[in-house]
Amino acid sequence: MTQALEHHDALARHAAHEVAVGSVPHAASADDALFPLNAVSTVLRFGRNQTIFNEGDDARYSYKIVEGGVRVCKVRPDGRRQIAEFLLPGDLFGFEAGEEHSLTAEALCNVVVMRCPRKHVERLSEEVPNVRRTLMMLLRRELSAAQDHLVMLGRQSARERLASFLLQLAERTDSDNGDTLDLPMGRQDIADFLGLTIETVCRALTELKRERVITIPNRHQVVIRNMDALEAVAEGAEV
Amino acid sequence: MTQALEHHDALARHAAHEVAVGSVPHAASADDALFPLNAVSTVLRFGRNQTIFNEGDDARYSYKIVEGGVRVCKVRPDGRRQIAEFLLPGDLFGFEAGEEHSLTAEALCNVVVMRCPRKHVERLSEEVPNVRRTLMMLLRRELSAAQDHLVMLGRQSARERLASFLLQLAERTDSDNGDTLDLPMGRQDIADFLGLTIETVCRALTELKRERVITIPNRHQVVIRNMDALEAVAEGAEV
DNA sequence: CGCCCTATTGAGATTCATCAACTGCGGTGG
DNA sequence: CCACCGCAGTTGATGAATCTCAATAGGGCG
Measured from the CB, is A199 under 7 Å from any atom of strand C? Predict the structure, then answer.
């Protein structure tokens, strides 16, 4: 099965389960405090490239990813796109909004999310100090991630950005797979995250492969063969 | 009065005054709710390039700028620097931190700040719903600004970045001066904010000057002569 | 079985960085 | 008061990194 299909099948298979037990795999620590929201949440599915919400939309809901992946991005009038973040199972999004969403959210592949009305979030936040703290923490993490992203875009080379990206992904991923990373996103998505062109992403990947730092079993997986080398590349080691 | 001399001297001269009256010129709307903090704040002065706090420091205080300017940035082990934000009079910073500051804050020029212990911020935040909302809003704004910055670094050319930067400054500045912008930061700071080199910043400035979009009376001021053209450049108009 | 979409590879153009020289202002000392 | 000094900024020449345009390859689905 193909990626799209595989991804989705995995989804389909696990989704019911996850939802049933009401827990999430790479549980964010945020989950515990926000658990009561599950009771007022709806499970929704989106297909590849489907829009979950647009920049400027009323922020009526917040979301948690159960299975699959989502990109949140800005698109300029002329079509140039910058992805701010990739969201994976367990991640929350749409909690940080004010009146309107400041970003567009789209499905990277088939996705299962839990959607919860923001008024519930807000009420819970008013009533339960611990929820407040959790939401604050969530926001702080987003901000901190954005700051790291700024350094990447402003001051790292293409090679370094790609290495950093893979390492980031590795940190967020279950260690179950050894050092195999699943990439729910396409090359163009990676390019739009890293502020590069798709060709440059390909070339950087090929280069790392040639140097035996990674292998690429298929277009939706990357295996890290030499973690130290990859870290060295991310930190700017010459050649 | 003039500017560079102006900048520092103006600072020195005005600082006492501002502090004395205990009010801030371009008051952020956030100020009202947080006003009680002024009572527990200390006035501090920092000289050009002095560090206010470092990334990783315990976040014991939050700050408000009274006069001058501050940069908050990340510095990589090899010295590459990315400025996340410039802070101007009225701006708050150090409110967004968790246990530690995630960024380094340094004075752009002589600066006067009010410093307030975070435990007071936190207590007030627990007790007064309006303060909570204000702090949330502050965080959301920072996040949104960071997201816009990401688009700039990832998807705009040098020219476009510089134009966007000037427009950003123009929006934040009192309209008192007409279209004259004060730049408390040096060229290298601008470069580190835009993810460029100092030379590229200079060249882009010179180019805009040659095209009569701006004038540069001195190194700490820029006058916008043709706002429409500047906006067009920022949006990516061809040459 | 073949088409379509995505990814990869190649060649050339462009932008930006680097290295280097020079300028000008503001401060300092004679 | 003038001359010099030093830093910050500007300009120029060159090269490297990345983008653009174009052709090719591969895999999954109809």
Answer: yes
Fold entry, domain A156-234? Arc Repressor Mutant, subunit A (1.10.10)
CA of A200 vs C1' of D18, distance in Å?
A: 7
Which of B113, B134, B136 lies closest to B34, judged by CA?
A: B134
A86 CA to D19 C1' distance (Å)? 24
Side by side, the strands of the sheet bearing B104-107 are B51-53, B104-107, B70-75, B81-87
Nearest of A148, A130, A19, A41 to residue A94 by alpha carbon: A41
Question: Hey, are the CB atoms on B74 and A151 less than 8 Å from each other?
Answer: yes
* B157 CB below 7 A from strand D atoms: no
% pLDDT > 70, chain B: 87
**What ranges do the domains of chain B cover?**
2-143, 156-234
Determine whether the interchain pair B140/A98 forms a contact, defined as Cβ–Cβ distance below 8 Å. yes
Each residue's pLDDT tens digit, B6-59: 343 333 333 333 333 334 444 445 667 888 888 899 999 999 999 999 999 999
Q: Which residues of A touch B82 (CB under 8 A)?
A: 150-151, 154-155
A102–B78: do the CB atoms touch at under 8 Å?
Answer: no
CATH says B2-143 is which class?
A: mainly beta
Question: Are β-strands B221-224 and A221-224 bridged in parallel, bridged antiparallel, or unpaired?
Answer: unpaired
Across the beta sheet with A92-93, the strand order is A42-46, A111-117, A61-67, A92-93
The per-residue pLDDT for range A180-201, each reduced to its tens digit, is 999 999 999 999 999 999 999 9
